Amino acid sequence: MEKKIVKCISTGTSVTNDKGSAIFNCPGCRKHKIVRSYNARQTSVKYKCPACGFIGPN
Ligand SMILES: [Zn+2]
C-alpha cells in the first residue's frame, strides 16, 4: 500500500500525524489544496498558493 505524505505548504513538515493541521482548498482559486501544520497556524506563518499566488494567514 502506498502511503501519502502530506506536507505543510509553509514549513514543509509532514502533517500526517499532526492533529491540529488543516487542509483546505485555496480561497483564491478554489482548486489547489492548501496544507497547514498546527505549528504554522499557531505562529501565523504566511502561505502562498503555488497555483494562483494567493497569500493568506488562514
Ligand atoms: Zn490558489
Largest sheet: 2 strands, antiparallel
Q: Kindly report the average pLDDT value.
A: 93
Order of helices and strands: EEHEE
**Estimated share of beta-strand residues:** 15-25%
What is the tally of beta strands? 4
- Helix count, per DSSP? 1
**N-end to C-end Cα span:** 32 Å
What is the count of distinct domains?
1
In words, what does this structure look like?
The structure is a single chain. With 58 residues, the protein is mainly beta. It contains one helix and four strands. The protein is globular. The termini are far apart. Zinc ion (ZN) binds at residues 26, 28-29, 32, 49, 51-52, 54.
Brief overview, please?
With 58 residues, the protein is mainly β.
Features:
single chain; 58 residues; mainly beta; two-stranded antiparallel ribbon; 9% helix; 21% strand; globular; binds zinc ion
Q: Secondary structure elements and their pairing?
A:
Elements: E1 22-25, E2 33-36, H1 38-42, E3 47-48, E4 55-56
Antiparallel strand pairs: 1-2, 3-4
Zinc ion binds at residues 26, 28-29, 32, 49, 51-52, 54.
